[in-house]
Amino acid sequence: MFARLALTASACALGLTFAVAPASAQAPQRPSTPFTLDTGHPRAPEQLAVRFDKADLAIRLLPETKSLEAVATLDFTATEPLAALVVELDTRFDISSVEIDGVAVTGWTNPDGRMTVPLPASRSLGQTVSLRIAYAGAPHEALRAPWSGGFVWRTAPGGQPWIATAVQGQGCDLFWPCIDHPQGEPQRMDLHITVPEGLSAPSNGRFLGKTDNGDGTTTWNWTARQPNTYAVALNIGPYVEMSGTYDSRFGNTIPLHFWRLETDDPMQAADLFAEFSKQLDFYEATIGPFPFADEKMGVVVTPHLGMEHQTINAYGNGYRLDGKGYDWLLQHELAHEWFGNQITNTDWDHMWLHEGFGTYMQPLYARWLNGDRAMESELQTMRLTLANRFPVVSGQSHTSGEVYEGERGPGLDLYYKGALVAHTLRLMIGDEAFYDSLRRLVYGRPDPAPGNFQPRYASTDDYVAIVNQVTGRDLGWFFDAYLRQAELPDLIQTRDGDRLSLEWKTGDGGPFPMPIEVEVGGVVNVLPMTDGRGEIVVPGRAHVLIDPANKVLRRQPHIEAYQAWRARNAG
In 3D, which of 227, 357, 235 has the Cα closest to residue 292? Predict the structure, then answer.
């Protein structure tokens, strides 16, 4: 297997020399289109009519011109009658050849980054087709990675090229032809990354070896199982590889790999590498088996802050200590191997399944390490950030920009409101039901074990159905109030003599039978609030404290006052 793949990579690299015009000889660079610079547009009918079996990408990086030369071979199976293939690819690239099943074709178009290739002969259900595209050019350069993404071209402290991709917000089509949608994952992806000799190119999945091409370049070969489209990543630099293994509580052994810069402090790198096993143990105990144990847990130091690149998470936190007792960035990006790469949302409208649950893992890990006070501290910091301007889930299909940009969508509420909703849910239904619901969401079953699950897709409705199943209750009202409305539920308090009346109000006036604890004179009482209302006797001047353990996410005027003050005094 290895020898055959290595020869294939060499042939691809050789083919690039003749099939693709050097980037330096290209015409002045075209800008990426607005279509390309957002990701998650509704799929074309032709994309809905195929299964994406495999992507093979042979790509050569040219640091001196900040450009690339590449050949992508994409294999599909028709799930409906098919007359054309449609993929996304940035119009910045010059395409030198397009082939269907090894035969050159013409008549293809790529007006705005959605490329249509008519088939010489239509395909019927179950028939396969292979698309080969050779292209070259200077890819879109990130303006502020990872938030405004693309290619990052930097120079390492030792003077060598240091290159990375970060394309979550803009999409896979910034450097390879793909179905640029959350549900566009290929079943397998092989990568052959050619770089100047002396540099390393860690990437997704399993390492299949490297080839010295005899021309001052080396090709690094990788194969990955069902990669999340935006989690396919290139990383090139003067790296030193650190490796080890983790003996899983599920009986298997997981390869651990960390690529640090050769100029990094070895002791700092060793301290971070020591966190790998500790964090894996938390996740496996809390959620279940590491999803990609047959490949690796991989991390690489990047010239940007970080990103959840499947089995090769980007790390740019500079080994910073912040008193939490763990590296928050490493822990957050690792969370996405479960929430993002193992389970991928069906549409960007459900991105809280990635970011909300992924963010909730930080306070849970803080508790795992240092107890309740550490967890509550992180939760309170999150609570102070909520904007509540847009619903977390709109019920409509969205692109990345429409959910991540706080002026158009929920923005940071995907992370922090999502995490606080998860916390409220856990305290309401209990740990057993909550963690059972997460396992069913992530693995599609309650009893995950190595080898008995595959990456899967899910939506908010899927998760609501899971919660209803494990609790035996209809909790749609909970998700309607917290996710499908912008405003937080408000607990209205009315005092009449020695009686305190409480009533929940939601943005749409819908039911909200959320139980609430009320402490009266040091005694905690639980009001069931079955119809959204409750009443309690408060004798004399007894002190009243609503929700003393902060179990329920709700509107709190003192936080709104603080946020307004902070906004007035910003800068």
Answer: 227
CA–CA distance from 168 to each of 25, 185, 375 (Å)? 30, 14, 29
**Are the C-beta atoms of residues 345 and 404 closer than 8 Å to each other?**
no
Helix (H) or strand (E) holding 542: none
- In terms of phi and psi (left: phi > 0; alpha: psi -120 to 50; beta: otherwise), the region of 339 is beta
Region of 118 on the Ramachandran plot (φ > 0 left; ψ -120 to 50 alpha; else beta): beta
d(CA 292, CA 308): 13
The amino acid present at 441, given as its one-letter code, is L
- Alpha-carbon distance 286 to 275, whole Å? 16
- How many whole angstroms separate alpha carbon 263 and alpha carbon 257? 18
Question: DSSP 3-state assignment of 461?
Answer: helix
Q: Is the omega angle on the peptide bond into residue 146 within 30 degrees of 0, that is, cis? A: yes
pTM for this one?
0.94
Give the rounded distance of the alpha carbon of 180 from its chain centre: 14
List, for residues 384-400, the tens digit of each pLDDT value. Answer: 999 999 999 999 999 99
CA–CA dist 360, 382 (Å, integer): 10
**Closest to 190 measured CA to CA, from 62, 57, 97:** 57
Cα-flanking dihedrals φ and ψ of residue 279, to 5°?
Answer: -70, -40
DSSP labels for 221-276? EEEEES--GGG---EEBSEEEEEEEEE-TTS-EEEEEEEEETTS-HHHHHHHHHHH
E strand or H helix at 279: helix 266-286
3-state secondary structure of 280: helix
Which helix (DSSP H) or strand (DSSP E) does residue 13 occupy? Answer: helix 2-19
- Token pair of 297, please? 């847990």
Residue spans of the chain under pLDDT 50? 1-27
- Distance between CA atoms of 88 and 91, rounded to whole angstroms? 9
Q: Could you give the CA distance from residue 71 to residue 218 in angstroms, rounded to a whole number?
A: 16
